């Protein structure tokens, strides 16, 4: 099975988007004549694996390399760098060029920036005195379909950059990506935003509409009905909780990257000592599609059940005489055997983590924090974590959860914990803590926490969730309904108005706009647009909602969204856009900045 | 019948009819073509006229200075200028495709004029050889020229857009050629220009690097004149013995041969479309020769100029302009005398209809079946007419016929009407572009509009582009720029209003481009006002920078939300202004400020410190210093030998002092102080233990290392130095002792006094080290029964665990423990019984 997901069942024609990206890339590579060495930034390389198979690159006479500090070893006289527009990469490229010059190598250099060239990068090339040696181009890859209902803008650092550095470049990128989507699928008439960054994106998007109006007549029909922009800042509680869906757990323990996990082949039952293997995880795998969003407890049962039924079938086959058609059915079932083994292996591997008492204790603590009933117990638990010097990420995750639900800690305890952290983990973490404080994730308490009110009003804690037959999204965290998804649910169902009071308690402003879209185009445009709108409702097609998470979304939240859209009475399909798929670990890690 | 008069004007050449409708009576006065050098642009383009300095002419009441005058095809003066260019005689003059006038003078200098008779700088020269040898002849084509020097060398400008001359291969002949013709690059196989040179007894084909002699019988003896057809496929040759030959461009086969009975070559030889060739001597009638049949003679008593077009020839005389063309087939079928074609009958039927004659119906019945083609023919014929009333009657006939057709493409008539409206508009004598429909199609509407704009016919261009649904942006943009150039005296505010009034007609027009033009014309203020209206920040901001509106640029870039634009402005100002000025500009603007900080944090530490100092953010400077304090440690080369802690501590101390300046940062100040202290102690430890393992570990790691090394005194010292709390001390020591598996010391430690952290850490440390026996020493000391139960469970002692749990009366715990003992059936049942016992009382 391929890592590139099959997108046939997508509610939008994402395939055409992906093909366009592929064509753009191939054009760039073809336009540079002859043999060349393509140097790709590793993370971007991961992203590209969702668009193109690396084997295909070889057909264009390409040697593929990953960008690193070391200079490029190749016989090709043309070196093509394909990199995101990040400042820090420019230094390595410049040093490569200088290195070649000092060795007397004459090469042609190209840099293709993804998604566009930026002055700040070129400035560094200029300062390094290599700018004039390099041909600069752009590869406008603003988004990548991760799966049939997920689009990623591939902005790993978006949240950190916005919250800590005040660098809103990623927001422009998101707006541009949505704008590009609109140029393919029509202007989205309804926009609802919550959170500061969401507001900015929506503003930039509006600006783009006035700067480059879309007035060609075939734009009148809009495939996407509503855009919901949620700033991660609004809900930092959810990502800090341990995800309990199958896919969520896989991500927590094994890290899913670009729709696949890499693990020891022994885990997958392949006897090759020490070898790593990649296991693709996307909806092209039918079994995975079925179980990815279930609570892990249930997954174990489902797999067990399936295995048993297969075993029964097998015994039947071997004992009784069978008709040909029955045999055929059985063989068909056997086809799913590789998928079965794959997920049984994975699930087994996961349960070695989930059965640990420390894991259960952590879950327990997360729920205690969310319940916000016993402050002291939580504080002591965290203190003990520090004493035991547990991994810093784990500690910070819980600390953030604790701080956010309490809207900060009283100064005395804040200083106490900080001091303890320095004592045990070292002073070099000053910068990390400073970043977290700037982002408001671990800070001094300045006002009373709204968490209890919000929790109650949105029913975030649901007792007695039946994980096997869930009737509420709370199943994804075994009892905690993610705040972010509760918001989305309300936004899809009834808009912001009925819940204004609650929204005011959460960070950042909220807006709700209806875009006229075609006001300045000739009158027939309006007529056409209007009638189309009516047609759509009449023919009973489900409207499509694009939910964009600025700052990342977790698999558990995705599961909850899929659960919602599958509910009866939900008249919309959901497509998810995100800066990146995140989990508590990866989010916290973006804030890491150690001195030294 | 009315039709007869139409055909009466036609001439028959073999089996083809020709006509030459008058396009315009020339509106100019006192222009004598024979006294002047004249260049006429094809596609009804302008006419450039200048007194011919190679002829001796009598001056009437005119200045001795020559004047270059540019007229429309109808003879309306567009512009004139005095010719004062040095370089000798004017040899060649022609229009380019972009309607620039190319004038080549003797010394090889190329002057270019636009249609407004303004010299386009810079002048180009054909090179040193031309300068030395003098140019004697030029042959132009649409976009290039070949020049011949007195020395017989050929030079070429292959593309007027590039204007880079090159020399062609040398012919080696001693004599000068009799005649030359050019095959345009687009028609040659090589894609380079080829020149046909009639020289000596034959023809040479010359290109950039080769000369080739044409073999073949048909060219025997010197050739006097050569002309290539407009499609580059045929060649007309006038031979020394007075014959006119037409061959295919590769000299294969003679398509036409006619003996003109004059060995004197014609002054002008021109193709009329592709069907016939015109020859003109100035004292005999104009001769038109076709492939067969007798030639046609046209009589004129004035000098003529033949202007070849793709579908005919325009004939310019002093007083009129005519268009000689083969009568289109559709027109022939309708107007040919005695024609009974369906189209002719349809046209006739309309006439009857207008006269209320019943014969109209009769005609229609006659052609019922072929009505669609009749309608089509009428539409087509209308398209070819120059006469508006005839266009009208033909279209009426078409429309009349269409009414009886069920399946006819109805928009054909409408389309033709539209085209004709455009054509009639530009054919108006005031505009003077007499395009035929074929020329119009070939030229394309957008080029026509470009030409109108170029001639400053903006209103007409705007109307036309609106009428045929083209983007008006080009027109309005050009108008705005011309307006700015033309009216430098109008005050900015008024000018702005005038411009905005028109610019708003077109959505998405680039105000920035207009503003840039205003700036180029020295109207900086107007530019600033215009650029204000540009909606696209990506265009607006760079322009604002170039006109020095840095503050506005920064504001606009920030508003756009496009960080790249903000950076663009930042770098610009950063480079141009003094640091303090720069800081002042960004200080109050969050986005630019943050972007600057983020950039400078990576690459310009010192500059960033200056910024923070200027804004009084001392703590930020302190953070930077603190961060720098790690730098020396990173460099492995530096760490050899000299003690590093000195400079590092100095930096941290500095940071600490800065933190201390503000009240809010006492915590950081204290932390920095401790850090410095820690580094000192660690350094001392490294010196005393002679092991470089302390620096850059945390306080607790330092203590742990001491314990692990068995240096308990040092550990104690560090503990006291940093006032490490008892609790933390216990945690540390317990795990440190467990790491070195010093169980004895651990037990001793547990007995020193009652541990402030209880015994659980002891238990955990032992279990983690997989020492059950050691763990058992502490488990019974656990005060909490639940903890005790779990601890037992963890080392696999089911019974003890169960006992403790049941003592704790915790059913849930029992259940959980049971799960952990799932594999062990005996233990599992044990839990069940215990739980049953527990739940029993609660039920009762």
Tell how many strands the DSSP assignment of chain A holds. 14
Contiguous low-pLDDT stretches of chain A (5 residues minimum) are 518-539
| Main sheet attributes: strand count, strand direction, barrel closure of chain B | 6 strands, antiparallel
Could you give a short account of the major beta sheet of chain A?
7 strands, mixed
CATH architecture of the largest domain in chain A: 3-Layer(aba) Sandwich
**What proportion of the residues of chain A form beta strands (DSSP E)?**
5-15%
Q: Gap between N and C termini of chain B, in Å?
A: 126 Å
Which bin fits the share of residues in helices of chain B?
A: 40-55%
CATH class call of the largest domain in chain A:
Alpha Beta
- What would you give as the CATH superfamily of the largest domain in chain A? Sec1/Munc18 (SM) protein, domain 2
Secondary structural class of chain A: alpha/beta
| Class by alpha and beta content of chain B | alpha+beta
- Weakly predicted, low-confidence segments of chain B: 840-844
- The average pLDDT of chain A is 86
Overall, the morphology of chain B is: elongated
Radius of gyration of chain A: 26 Å
Question: What count of helical segments of chain B does DSSP give?
Answer: 36
Number of E strands of chain B:
30
Biggest interface goes to: A-B, 48 and 55 residues
Protein name (chain A): Vacuolar protein-sorting-associated protein 33-like protein
Keywords (chain A): Membrane, Transmembrane, Transmembrane helix
InterPro entries (chain A): Sec-1-like_dom1, Sec1-like, Sec1-like_dom2, Sec1-like_sf, VPS33_dom3b
Pfam family, one (chain A): Sec1
Please give the structural blueprint.
The complex is a heterodimer of chains A (596) and B (844).
Chain A: H1 14-31, E1 36-40, H2 42-48, H3 54-58, E2 62-66, E3 78-84, H4 87-102, E4 108-114, H5 119-127, E5 134-138, E6 144-147, E7 150-152, H6 158-165, H7 169-185, E8 190-194, H8 196-211, E9 226-231, H9 237-240, H10 246-254, E10 260-264, E11 276-280, H11 286-291, H12 296-319, H13 324-335, H14 337-354, H15 357-371, H16 375-387, H17 392-405, H18 411-425, H19 430-438, H20 451-457, H21 483-494, H22 500-505, E12 510-514, H23 523-538, E13 543-550, H24 555-565, E14 572-578, H25 584-590
Parallel strand pairs in A: 1-2, 1-3, 3-4, 4-5, 7-14, 8-9, 9-13, 13-14
Antiparallel strand pairs in A: 6-7, 8-12, 10-11
Chain B: H1 2-8, E1 11-13, E2 16-19, E3 22-25, E4 36-40, E5 47-51, E6 67-71, E7 77-82, E8 90-95, E9 101-105, E10 109-113, E11 124-125, H2 128-133, E12 135-141, E13 144-149, E14 154-157, E15 166-167, E16 179-183, E17 194-199, E18 202-206, E19 211-213, E20 223-228, E21 234-239, E22 243-248, E23 254-259, E24 268-272, E25 276-280, E26 286-289, E27 296-298, E28 304-309, E29 312-317, E30 320-326, H3 329-335, H4 342-354, H5 359-366, H6 371-384, H7 388-402, H8 411-427, H9 437-443, H10 445-454, H11 458-467, H12 473-486, H13 492-503, H14 511-520, H15 524-531, H16 537-546, H17 550-560, H18 563-576, H19 579-587, H20 590-603, H21 605-615, H22 618-628, H23 631-634, H24 636-639, H25 645-661, H26 666-689, H27 699-708, H28 712-721, H29 726-739, H30 743-752, H31 760-768, H32 772-778, H33 785-794, H34 798-808, H35 811-820, H36 825-843
Antiparallel strand pairs in B: 1-2, 2-30, 3-30, 4-5, 5-6, 6-7, 8-9, 9-10, 10-11, 12-13, 13-14, 14-15, 16-17, 17-18, 18-19, 20-21, 21-22, 22-23, 24-25, 25-26, 26-27, 28-29, 29-30
Helix pairs in contact in B: 3-4, 3-6, 4-5, 4-6, 4-7, 6-7, 6-8, 7-8, 10-11, 10-12, 11-12, 12-13, 12-14, 13-15, 14-15, 16-17, 16-18, 17-18, 18-20, 21-22, 22-25, 25-26, 27-28, 27-29, 29-30, 29-31, 31-32, 33-34, 34-35, 34-36, 35-36
GO biological process, one term (chain B): intracellular protein transport
Domain Vps16 N-terminal (chain B): 8-412
Membrane topology (chain B): Peripheral membrane protein
């Amino acid at each position: 099975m391929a890592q590139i997901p099959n997108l046939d069942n997508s509610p939008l024609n994402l395939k055409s988007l992906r093909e366009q990206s592929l064509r753009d890339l191939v054009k760039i590579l073809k336009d540079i004549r002859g043999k060349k060495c393509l140097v790709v930034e590793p993370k971007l390389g991961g992203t590209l694996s969702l668009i193109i198979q690396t084997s295909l690159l070889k057909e264009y006479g390409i040697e593929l390399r990953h960008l690193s500090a070391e200079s490029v070893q190749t016989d090709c006289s043309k070196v093509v760098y394909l990199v995101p527009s990040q400042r820090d990469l420019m230094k390595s490229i410049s040093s490569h060029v200088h290195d070649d010059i000092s060795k007397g190598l004459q090469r042609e250099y190209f840099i293709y920036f993804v998604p566009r060239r930026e002055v700040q990068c070129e400035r560094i090339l200029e300062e390094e005195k290599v700018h004039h040696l390099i041909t600069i181009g752009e590869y406008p890859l603003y988004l990548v379909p991760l799966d049939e209902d997920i689009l990623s803008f591939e902005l790993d650092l978006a949240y950190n950059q916005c919250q800590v550095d005040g660098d809103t470049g990623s927001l422009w990128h998101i707006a541009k990506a949505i704008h590009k989507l609109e140029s393919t699928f029509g202007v989205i008439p309804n926009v609802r935003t919550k959170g500061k960054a969401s507001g900015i994106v929506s503003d930039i998007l509006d600006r783009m509409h006035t700067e480059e109006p879309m007035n060609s007549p075939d734009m009148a029909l809009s495939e996407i009905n509503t855009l919901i922009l949620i700033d991660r800042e609004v809900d930092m509680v959810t990502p800090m909780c341990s995800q309990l869906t199958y896919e969520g757990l896989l991500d927590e323990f094994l890290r899913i990257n670009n729709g696949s996990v890499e693990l020891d082949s022994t885990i997958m039952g392949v006897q090759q000592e020490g070898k790593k293997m990649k296991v693709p995880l996307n909806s092209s795998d039918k079994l995975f599609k079925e179980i990815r969003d279930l609570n892990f407890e249930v997954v174990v049962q489902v797999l067990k059940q399936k295995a048993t039924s297969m075993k029964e079938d097998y015994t039947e086959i071997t004992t009784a005489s069978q008709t040909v058609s029955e045999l055929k059915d059985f063989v068909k079932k056997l086809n799913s055997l590789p998928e079965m083994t794959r997920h049984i292996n994975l699930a087994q591997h996961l349960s070695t983590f989930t059965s640990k008492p420390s894991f259960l204790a952590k879950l327990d603590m997360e729920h205690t924090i969310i319940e916000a009933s016993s402050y002291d117990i939580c504080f002591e638990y965290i203190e003990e974590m520090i004493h035991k010097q547990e991994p810093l990420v784990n500690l910070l995750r819980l600390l953030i959860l604790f701080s956010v639900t309490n809207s900060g800690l009283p100064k005395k305890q804040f200083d106490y914990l900080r001091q303890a952290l320095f004592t045990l983990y070292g002073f070099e973490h000053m910068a990390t803590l400073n970043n977290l404080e700037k982002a408001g994730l671990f800070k001094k308490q300045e006002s009373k926490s709204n968490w209890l009110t919000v929790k109650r009003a949105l029913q975030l804690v649901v007792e007695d969730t039946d994980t096997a037959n869930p009737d509420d999204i709370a199943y994804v965290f075994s009892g905690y309904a993610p705040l972010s998804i509760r918001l989305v649910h309300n936004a899809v169902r009834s808009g912001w108005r009925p819940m204004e009071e609650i929204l005011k308690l959460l960070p950042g402003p909220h807006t709700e706009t209806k875009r006229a879209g075609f006001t300045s185009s000739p009158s027939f445009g309006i007529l056409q647009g209007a009638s189309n709108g009516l047609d759509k409702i009449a023919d009973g097609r489900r409207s499509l909602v694009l939910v964009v998470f600025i700052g990342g979304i977790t698999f558990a939240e995705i599961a909850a969204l899929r659960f919602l859209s599958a509910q009866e009475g939900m008249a919309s399909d959901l497509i998810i856009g995100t800066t990146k798929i995140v989990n508590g670990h990866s989010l916290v890690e973006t804030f890491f900045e150690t001195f030294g | 019948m009315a039709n007869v008069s139409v055909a009466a004007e036609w001439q028959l050449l073999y089996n083809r009819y020709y006509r030459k409708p008058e396009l315009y009576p020339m509106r100019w006065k006192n222009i004598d073509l024979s006294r002047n050098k004249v260049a006429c642009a094809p596609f009804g383009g302008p006419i450039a006229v200048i007194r011919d300095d190679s002829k001796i002419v009598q001056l009437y009441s005119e200045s001795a200075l020559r004047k270059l005058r540019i007229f429309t095809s109808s003879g309306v003066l567009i512009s004139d200028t005095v010719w004062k260019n040095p370089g000798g005689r004017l040899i060649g003059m022609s229009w380019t495709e972009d309607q620039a006038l190319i004038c080549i003078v003797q010394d090889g200098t190329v002057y270019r004029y636009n249609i407004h008779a303004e010299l386009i700088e810079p002048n180009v020269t054909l090179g040193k050889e031309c300068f030395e040898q003098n140019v004697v002849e030029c042959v132009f084509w649409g976009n290039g020229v070949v020049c011949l020097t007195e020395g017989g060398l050929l030079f070429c400008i292959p593309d007027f857009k590039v204007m880079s001359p090159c020399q062609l291969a040398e012919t080696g002949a001693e004599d000068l050629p009799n005649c030359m013709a050019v095959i345009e690059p687009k028609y040659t196989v090589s894609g380079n220009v080829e020149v046909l040179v009639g020289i000596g007894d034959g023809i040479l084909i010359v290109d950039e690097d080769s000369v080739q002699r044409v073999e073949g019988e048909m060219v025997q003896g010197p050739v006097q004149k050569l002309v290539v057809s407009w499609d580059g496929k045929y060649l007309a040759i006038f031979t020394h013995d007075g014959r006119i030959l037409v061959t295919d461009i590769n000299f294969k086969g003679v398509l036409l041969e006619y003996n003109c009975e004059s060995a004197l070559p014609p002054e002008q030889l021109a193709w009329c479309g592709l069907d016939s060739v015109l020859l003109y001597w100035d004292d005999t009638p104009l001769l038109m020769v076709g492939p067969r049949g007798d030639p046609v003679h046209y009589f004129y008593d004035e000098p003529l100029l033949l202007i070849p077009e793709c579908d005919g020839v325009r004939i310019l005389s002093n007083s009129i302009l005519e268009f000689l063309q083969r009568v289109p087939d559709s027109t022939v079928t309708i107007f040919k005398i005695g024609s009974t074609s369906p189209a002719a009958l349809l046209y006739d039927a309309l006439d009857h209809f207008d006269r209320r004659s019943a014969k109209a119906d009769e005609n229609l019945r006659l052609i019922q079946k072929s009505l669609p083609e009749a309608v089509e023919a009428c539409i087509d014929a209308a398209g070819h007419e120059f006469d508006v009333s005839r266009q009208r009657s033909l279209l009426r006939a078409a429309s009349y016929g269409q009414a009886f057709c069920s399946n006819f493409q109805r928009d054909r008539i409408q389309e033709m009407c539209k085209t004709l409206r455009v054509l009639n508009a530009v054919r108006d004598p005031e505009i003077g572009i007499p395009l035929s429909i074929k020329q119009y199609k070939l030229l394309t509407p957008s080029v026509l509009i470009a030409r109108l704009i170029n001639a400053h016919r903006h209103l007409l261009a705007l109307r036309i582009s609106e009428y045929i649904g083209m983007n008006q942006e080009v027109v309005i943009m050009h108008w705005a720029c011309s307006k700015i150039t033309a009216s430098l005296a109008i005050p900015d505010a008024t000018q702005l209003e005038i411009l905005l009034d028109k610019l708003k007609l077109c959505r998405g027009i680039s105000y920035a481009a207009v503003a840039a033009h205003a700036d180029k014309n020295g109207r900086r203020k107007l530019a600033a006002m215009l650029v204000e209206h540009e909606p696209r920040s990506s265009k607006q901001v760079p322009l604002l920078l170039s006109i020095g509106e840095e503050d506005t640029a920064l504001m606009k870039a920030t508003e756009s939300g496009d960080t790249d634009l903000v950076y663009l402005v930042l770098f610009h100002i950063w480079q141009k202004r003094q640091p303090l000025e720069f800081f002042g500009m960004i200080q109050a603007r969050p986005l630019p400020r943050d972007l600057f900080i983020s950039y400078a944090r990576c690459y310009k530490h010192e500059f960033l410190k200056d910024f923070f100092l200027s804004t009084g953010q001392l703590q930020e400077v302190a953070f930077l210093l603190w961060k720098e304090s790690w730098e020396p440690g990173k460099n492995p080369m530096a760490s050899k030998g000299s003690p590093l802690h000195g400079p590092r501590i100095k930096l941290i101390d500095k940071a600490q002092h800065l933190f201390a300046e503000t009240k809010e940062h006492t915590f950081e100040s204290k932390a920095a102080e401790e850090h410095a202290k820690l580094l000192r102690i660690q350094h001392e430890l490294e010196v005393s233990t002679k092991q470089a393992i302390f620096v850059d570990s945390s306080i607790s790691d330092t203590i742990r290392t001491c314990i692990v090394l068995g240096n308990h005194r040092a550990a104690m010292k560090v503990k006291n130095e940093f006032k490490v709390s008892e609790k933390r001390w216990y945690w540390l020591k317990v795990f440190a002792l467990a790491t070195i598996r010093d169980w004895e010391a651990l037990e001793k430690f547990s007995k020193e006094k009652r541990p402030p952290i209880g015994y659980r850490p002891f238990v955990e440390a032992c279990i983690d080290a997989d020492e059950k026996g050691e763990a058992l020493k502490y488990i019974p000391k656990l005060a909490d029964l639940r903890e005790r139960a779990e601890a037992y469970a963890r080392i696999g002692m089911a019974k003890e665990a169960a006992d403790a749990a049941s003592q704790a009366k915790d059913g849930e715990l029992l259940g959980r423990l049971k799960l952990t003992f799932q594999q062990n059936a005996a233990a599992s049942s044990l839990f069940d019984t215990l739980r049953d016992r527990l739940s029993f009382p609660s039920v009762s």
